[in-house]
Amino acid sequence: MDRTFDRSSLGAFLRARRAALQPEDVGLRRGQRRRAPGLRREEVAELCTMSADYFARLERGDGPQPSEQMVAAIARGLRLTPDERDHLFLLSGHRTARRELRALHVSPGLMRIMDSLTGSTAQVMGPLGETLLQTPPAVALLGDQTQYTGNARSAPYRWFTDPAARDRYHPDYHDTNSRINVALLREAVARDGPGSLAAGLVETLQHTSDEFARLWERHEVGLRWSDTKHFVHPQIGRLDLYCQLLLEPDQGQSLLIFTATPGTESHEKLALLTVLGTDEFAIRTE
């Protein structure tokens, strides 16, 4: 244990933050029977992907010390600001969130927008291409990209080390995507400096991917993703989608929203993904 676990103060803080969080803040309807201020414990527990009983014990002050990963999930579920998140870590007996856990914390502003986009195809990306949060239609389009750990959390790393990472992108654009991934990593290293996560990622890729090493020697910068992205879904085929980008510069995060021109085949296919909202149907059958 890094610090003293203050059960009483943690419980009081969780109760206060739950009371301050309104249904509209997380995309829920208020309903006529809601009398107490804020969200119900069951609603917060679902947002934090934990049992209602466990969250209730933390609020009462008689629960076990939550792990750092659990604290990060609570911070995300309660839509905490960075300062509130760090306070939560300290009350839970941990030092403030490690750098990799801070990178997992979606900014409250982007969380509020995502709460209103549950029926849209959208996801939040971290500064090194980490997928931090996806709507169900985005999972249906691209697969669950939040499950990875270590270097594999970074989309550029997967692009050069895992052939399956390219499956849902049209092969005509693979070479261009490779160049853009390398250019963006070069900019990240220049921004974050030697010894940074970006620098470590580059060093690893130089030793594991001949393609990356070759492109790195070209010293290309300034390459950007096109507004139009071309996907190949394993069940419904090609989709040409427009990608709207919203940046959160303070945390280096971005929100991607995928749309299609009404009346096109891609629009019909995207609507199908939105209705299904799951990647289960995309599993190939032998």
Topology:
Blueprint lengths: L6 H14 L20 H7 L4 H9 L7 H10 L4 H10 L7 H6 L3 H8 L5 E5 L5 E4 L1 H7 L12 H7 L12 H19 L4 H12 L1 H7 L11 E6 L3 E12 L4 E7 L5 H12 L10
Antiparallel strand pairs: 1-2, 1-5, 3-4, 4-5
Helix pairs in contact: 1-3, 2-3, 2-4, 4-5, 8-13, 9-10, 10-11, 10-12, 11-12
Entry keywords:
12% strand; 2 domains; single chain; 5-stranded antiparallel beta sheet; Beta-Lactamase
Give the CATH level 1 class of the largest domain.
Alpha Beta
CATH topology of the largest domain: Beta-Lactamase
Largest sheet: 5 strands, antiparallel
Helix content: 40-55%
The termini sit apart by 49 Å
Count of DSSP-assigned helices: 13
Walk me through the structure:
With 286 residues, the chain is an alpha+beta fold. It has 2 domains: 7-105, lambda repressor-like DNA-binding domains (434 Repressor (Amino-terminal Domain), Orthogonal Bundle); 110-172 and 222-282, Beta-Lactamase, CATH 3.30.450. The protein has 13 helices and 5 strands. The protein has a 5-stranded antiparallel β-sheet with strand order 2-1-5-4-3. Helix 2 (41-47) crosses helix 4 (68-77). It starts with 6 loop residues before the first helix and ends in a 10-residue tail after the last helix.
